[in-house]
Fold this sequence. Notes:
Two copies of one chain form a homodimer. The first copy, chain A, is an alpha/beta fold. The first copy, chain A, is about 35% helix and about 20% strand.
Amino acid sequence: xxxxxxxxxxxxxxxxxxxxxxxxxxxxxxxxxxxxxxxxxxxxxxxxxxxxxxxxxxxxxxxxxxxxxxxxxxxxxxxxxxxxxxxxxxxxxxxxxxxxxxxxxxxxxxxxxxxxxxxxxxxxxxxxxxxxxxxxxxxxxxxxxxxxxxxxxxxxxxxxxxxxxxxxxxxxxxxxxxxxxxxxxxxxxxxxxxxxxxxxxxxxxxxxxxxxxxxxxxxxxxxxxxxxxxxxxxxxxxxxxxxxxxxxxxxxxxxxxxxxxxxxxxxxxxxxxxxxxxxxxxxxxxxxxxxxxxxxxxxxxxxxxxxxxxxxxxxxxxxxxxxxxxxxxxxxxxxxxxxxxxxxxxxxxxxxxxxxxxxxxxxxxxxxxxxxxxxxxxxxx
Amino acid sequence: xxxxxxxxxxxxxxxxxxxxxxxxxxxxxxxxxxxxxxxxxxxxxxxxxxxxxxxxxxxxxxxxxxxxxxxxxxxxxxxxxxxxxxxxxxxxxxxxxxxxxxxxxxxxxxxxxxxxxxxxxxxxxxxxxxxxxxxxxxxxxxxxxxxxxxxxxxxxxxxxxxxxxxxxxxxxxxxxxxxxxxxxxxxxxxxxxxxxxxxxxxxxxxxxxxxxxxxxxxxxxxxxxxxxxxxxxxxxxxxxxxxxxxxxxxxxxxxxxxxxxxxxxxxxxxxxxxxxxxxxxxxxxxxxxxxxxxxxxxxxxxxxxxxxxxxxxxxxxxxxxxxxxxxxxxxxxxxxxxxxxxxxxxxxxxxxxxxxxxxxxxxxxxxxxxxxxxxxxxxxx
Lengths: 381, 381
């Protein structure tokens, strides 16, 4: 594969965007990425989105978005539930790496707030196993609650031990103008927040939202070295969707496999990662991701939060722009937001939450409760 | 790009498969392709599907299908409405061509008959522009009817002039054990069939169905030449989704562009194509595809049917296994069925409907009323 670089990023504020259609939101992120890249168009668009068919009555979304952005270019939608954004980047990457395309826009978009909450909950549940999980009436958050309860039982953590993950996310989002929730939370807020699905309460969970993010990628040899952001590693792995089919409920096997493959490609290990945008849909997922990717021993993920290792100046900064928890989780767009944020870190554009001298960053996007996991490692060089 | 070859094909009979889940149908096609290729697994799965989120309450479909087939491999769903199958092949092709993966399964699946017809009609309509077309109450077939009515007015054809397309499709499907409609039809049947959306009647339209098809692709240099089927051309183009935004309602610009790009890659022209599996969702689309791809002058597509040029022994055989019209149209799977059928022709496996000495074949898959068009050219060599 020929090396690929990211030369443009764009994003919209995650919010309830009732006055904007899904195409409008996607277009805004794409135009921002084009402007940032200094380009007028691209040879292709790969669009991550999970639920436009259900929520927006719109399939065939990619050419619609391309057309609305004034680009009649080859365009395709990639779907891997909440991992759609990362999957779209990986598909776009291969299009450039193969030599087939010289420039590609990768975008992720989701517009979720036009429907009422129970419809959105039903749509989110399509990320689980329809025949064996949904059929039993379990929601997506319910599945994560099953994992978290077992994890707490197995390793002896109490609920408040997960608080630092959410507190860090909110503290960082305060400095991200694109974040949905721009307010601090305290340990007391965390402990008092409403229970959603025991043991997951409101502040363990990420908020949905309407938003889009975009990237512009090109062959690395067309960009001057010294300032470029390379995609040094890219890997995807899968596991069973249904939790009851997993050999181990408390280990994200697909995260382990995709991280190992990405580390190998990039020639790095966990110790080399300066910033890690992980998929903190729920606080339990933060712990499991940190463990599967080699930053903590099994069952010891919460320790990193309690010890202050995850802040922008800690050993392994995570959710530096707010993460899913506070930046927000427009599901099919999230994977692209993560990569945009890693690029911002590597460019040194993060102000108050800048990780000092960040040179290597990782983004990991999860579809379902660990079924699809896509890891990207970026390097500034 | 390094050249890529198809070494395995699989398909299921298109039917109402009420006793089988979507994962089961997809698995059957995948296992058939693995068996045909003589392989036990692959390094990745690219799955074309349009409406599993709406109809089957199942997103994250690709890892689900991979798991059910006993393959915990990287897997992603590609969506481009009815062009999803062709789009999945193109994504899989780039994964192999880039050197990232050494073997890839490409599959398409759709399970549509579990819902009642008005729900399926609504799901199909998501291929159109939700905000500007669906909002007006127009169905997907209604949009095609608008095109056909204008075409007949503009070029002076009468409805019966489109009959040969449907008659040829049914005559060929009679010899395809995987086809949904295995019966002949006559001109009288065509003229007497029920009106659906003037001027489109029942026998202008393709039937939906449940079905899956699969391909196994590898780098061409790993296969002995002389017997291999190469993907010699692959191109995707897009146009506006909404018909009112088209500069020309009666010309498939995206078909023209993607066919021209594929011809150029393959170093061939329309005269070299021995067999053409086109996207005959409605008879009008057959005429427009033949014109856009250079087989007929503008407005003269129906002439090829009336002159007998489209039969397996004609100048440009189309729908040689039944086409969408009689093989059936499980929307997200159709593009893969088309390529499977071209491979069958190039291998000389088509019996009664074998195109003599077929060496170069083309498949063209359409998403929406011409919004996404993907063309593949295959060569036996």
